[in-house]
Amino acid sequence: MAAPTAHIALYDTLADSEIGHLLVELRTGRFTGTPWNVVTVAESAEPITTMGGLRIAPDLALADLDPRHSDLLVLAGAEMWDTGGGEVWAAAARRFLDAQVPVAAICGATAGLARAGLLDDRDHTSAALEYLMTADGYHGEDRYVDARAVVGGDLITAGPDSPVQFARATLSRLGLAPEQTLQAYEDVFHRADASAFPVLMQAH
Asked: Which UniProt keywords are listed (predicted)?
């Protein structure tokens, strides 16, 4: 059986730090036993430069991205989200959610989805409620959850200070690991709790 596929949105100033934990766990499957294909997607074939200065050439054009051939869309933060950009990516997220394919959005990407109205009817979080309240078109304050990461149906959201929790929540939504393993993962990589490491190593 073919490995599942995660599509990673690429754009300049993409915040590498926010999605690094998730990408490593998906691609290696080291604690889940299920390695994923990680495929990058951009609006054009030109390389992008991440916030950390990495130049990445995309594997796929956004125009060719089809939720039917994907198991996850990942949207990282970037400068464009805070200048009102990212509409094409919010539209892609809408296509994925309409097709019941999970979308994982962190930091500024949550603002882009807020502007598109995609958070109004789903439990979600972000950097802070006040941050989302500045997004034109956002009416989801009643569904805002003050937590490090939140799973709202097919949507996973987190703030910029919670990359480990973002990874944990996404792995949970995808059904890739039991709660005991996920807790050990957060204990090791967020709390540096060495006592949790043996549990993590027994994951599969």
From this structure: Glutamine amidotransferase, Transferase
